Task: inverse folding
């Protein structure tokens, strides 16, 4: 695990590659309905004394595949990821537990009173945890609109958190930073470095959305087999860019790293 902070505004010598932007998911802010309370079975994500409830993804999936073609394609291919179509939001990825453990056991005061972004939020576990650790407000972003509507927002609501102080977006990171001009004290992001073709967009989003004195907590694996991304690859990109500095907060023998910027 690593932590990141602003290092320099000088990006000299860094040049992004051209990417195909024709099929990027548009950024959409999704409004919550505080009067519409979810009434479904829930599971528990427990860390120390904190108990976070979340909806049963398998039941949500059955509804999503009827209305969301991107989720339908992923399910048909029995895949957790379909690049540029479905980016894994139905699953709680391993590193989510590592970020949660770090925040609860080693840095509980980091989020107190802060404006927090859960980037690539999926079920919204880290954002909900941020509220339980004293965050002033939390915003959530995930690639797929259906994930935000049917999982993230209901999960925030069933945990009794500050839905009126929460905002939700879906869409590609490049489009997200074009419609969201807000800056955050803390950005939490887990397992978002897996695709090397998205790493430059991720880095640009982190730089754009972080306050000058802000902190990023990023967790990911050393290498993602079958996809090609990994922590060393992303940190090489950070070092070439020369905008953020970072430190390694924790690493496991299984190849999981927690990094702070």
Result:
């Amino acid at each position: 695990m690593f932590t990141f902070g602003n290092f320099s505004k000088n990006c000299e010598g860094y040049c992004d590659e051209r990417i195909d932007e024709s099929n990027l998911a548009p950024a959409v802010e999704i409004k919550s309905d505080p009067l519409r309370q979810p009434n479904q079975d829930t599971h528990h994500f427990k860390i120390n004394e904190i108990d976070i409830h979340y909806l049963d993804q398998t039941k949500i999936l059955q509804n999503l595949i009827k209305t969301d073609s991107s989720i339908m394609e992923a399910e048909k291919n029995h895949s957790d990821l379909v690049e540029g179509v479905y980016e894994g939001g139905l699953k709680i990825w391993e590193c989510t537990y590592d970020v949660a453990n770090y925040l609860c056991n080693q840095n509980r005061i980091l989020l107190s009173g802060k404006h927090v972004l859960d980037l690539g939020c999926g079920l919204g576990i880290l954002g909900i945890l941020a509220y339980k650790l004293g965050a002033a407000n939390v915003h959530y972003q995930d690639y797929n609109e259906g994930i935000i509507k049917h999982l993230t927002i209901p999960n925030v609501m069933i945990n009794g958190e500050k839905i009126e102080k929460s905002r939700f977006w879906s869409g590609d990171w490049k489009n997200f930073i074009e419609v969201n001009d807000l800056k955050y004290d803390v950005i939490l992001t887990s397992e978002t470095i897996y695709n090397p073709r998205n790493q430059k967009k991720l880095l640009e989003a982190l730089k754009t959305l972080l306050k000058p004195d802000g902190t990023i907590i990023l967790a990911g694996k050393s290498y993602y087999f079958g996809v090609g991304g990994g922590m060393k690859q992303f940190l090489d990109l950070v070092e070439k860019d020369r905008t953020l500095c970072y430190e390694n907060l924790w690493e496991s023998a299984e190849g999981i790293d927690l990094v702070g910027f």
